Amino acid sequence: MQTGGTARGSAKGRATRRLLPVLLLLVFAAGFAALGIWQVQRLAWKEALIADVARALRAAPVPPEALPRGDLAALTYHRVVVNGVFDPRGVVLATATSPLGNGYWVMVPVTRGAAPAIWVNRGFVPLGTRLEAARAAVPTGPVRVVGLVRQTEPRGTLLRGNRPEQDRWYARDLSAMTIARRLPPGETRYFLDAQTETPAPTLAPVPVPGLTVVQFPNNHLAYALTWFALAGLSPAAIFVVVRKAR
Asked: What is the pTM of this model?
């Protein structure tokens, strides 16, 4: 015959077995809901970013002097127009993967008198292009370049770092390139991915401009729905736990 103390102990044990999983599932539900809300916030940020870049790609280009000081990350892919003269001493061939295949980006600084020089990615040239040939193909007269603002790449790539001593460039680190080519200090926060170059280049190898891939993955809605679904399943799991613990 079961005593009162044994019955109370058994009931208490069942309550404990119910309480701990329930509390854990409640924590999970709150965490899943918080992650879902965060993804909704990320969705709003990403949609605003995409809309801003779309407007920037249609807007008239601005001169470098119109850019603010400090970090320019928010102005990536905005259009800038620069007038000056290419400095062929600074030509760097940076390893590139483009819609045209593997090759190099032709990086050249544009000097602007007393103003800081601005690095320009003139465009893509195929594998096998020699530095001497790319340097000889740089125009000597005044140029007008319209391009997209891109951030310097001081951290290199995930698998390969620049080797300036061997003149091997896998990332467009403007400070390192300026030092390697022994150029006067210039603008090292950003460079321009050329869209147009006037007059149009004619000397081979002719760089192909306008290959910038402007694409922003936007899966935040799917992520948010997944987290909210998991949060919604938690009450069902709590019901199962409570029922089995009876």
From this structure: 0.75
